[in-house]
Amino acid sequence: MIIHVANPIYDSVFKYIMEDERIAKTMLSALLKKEVVHVTVRPHEYSNTTRDTLSMFRIDFAATVREREGNEIKDRIVLIELQKTWLNTETLRFRQYLGAQYSNKNNIREAEDKGFAYPMVAVYLLGHRVGNIKEPIVYVNHDVFDYNGNVVEDGNMEPFVESLTHNSIIVQIPLLHGNVNNRLEKVLSVFDQTLVDGDTQQVLKIDEDKFADDNDMLYVLHKLTAAAANSEMRQDMNVEDEYYKAIEDRDTAIMQRDKMLKERDCKMAQMDERLSQQSEQLSQQSEQLSQQSEQLRNMAKALFVNGLSVEQISNMTGIDIDIIAKFLG
After folding, report:
1. Which residues have CB under 8 Å from 230's CB, separation 6+?
2. I want to staple 42 with a disulfide (CB 3.0 to 4.6 A). Which of 60, 246, 280, 319 is the partner?
3. pTM metric for this prediction
């Protein structure tokens, strides 16, 4: 059955579903490829939507991850720093945000006298492409090596190392084209923008039957359906549309201005080239005239030496008498 759901690429919709612990666990478990047994949204000064020139949605989670270590199963806390943006964003903004989290004392492990921090994973949900990377989801994981390039076992688990490095997950939303090859792609399929219904981006058209065997995903769809029917949520999406329309209009104006400036610079460069060529031509003509003048001077002197008068030389060469007089000094 085809259903219509709110588009989670909108900040307001994404915040609405990710504040639901079950959905947050579903999403983060798929991203981390590990069992997340508990999730809490961490309060901080950067929460919710930041309305600036490059709108970036930020939200932090403390995820309790269940992992097997040898024969034991242990729970450990991992901080998830999630950042989502529609637009091309300077990496400096991401780095500044991560820097703030590294310096946040609230991210230090409880009862830790050495000041070790919780391990952190940065997740980037991008509404744009990253260079020439063709994979929709990429993992950037850091290993610990010795001098010879051999992996140091358990190096990444060392608290000192975990406190100073982090892994990253990058999702390129434009490359989510309905191909579902694994659990994560199935979860992220609700972000597939090829499913946009109608002229507005606010609603996606999804085949619910594709998720009939997945209660967690059916729950996500139920939440998104509720968001689509919520008048306040639709109003929030309208505000986002107006905001991004203003940004697009501004960017279009900037692009048109830059195009005009580029065309003007190109015309000026062409004009400078023509002037340079004309100057070169005038220089060559001046050189030719100088050479011709020198040749005439030498001719007049030779004729004068051979006994011809100034008048005779003028009649023979057609050169004015006064000029011949100047040639002869």
Report:
1. 6
2. 60
3. 0.64
SS3 244: helix
Instruction: Give the residue from 20, 31, 1 showing the smallest Cα distance to 226.
Output: 20
Q: Read off the amino acid at residue 143.
A: D
C-alpha 159, offset from chain centre: 32
Q: Contact, 126 vs 172, CB < 8 A?
A: yes
- What DSSP element (H or E) covers 277? helix 231-305
Burial of 110 (0-12, 13-18, 19+ CB in 10 A): exposed
- Residue 240's contacts (CB-CB under 8 Å, 6 or more residues apart) are 10, 11, 12
Other CB atoms within 10 Å distance of the CB of residue 172: 20
Q: How many residues does the chain have?
A: 329
Structure tokens at 191: 């972000």
User: How many Å is the Cα radius of gyration of the chain?
Assistant: 37
Looking only at the bridges linking them, the beta strands covering 72-85 and 56-69 are: antiparallel
DSSP state of 132: T
Low-confidence ranges of the chain (pLDDT < 50): 44-54, 92
pLDDT digits (tens, 9 = 90+) for 148-190: 778 777 665 666 666 566 788 999 988 988 777 899 999 999 9
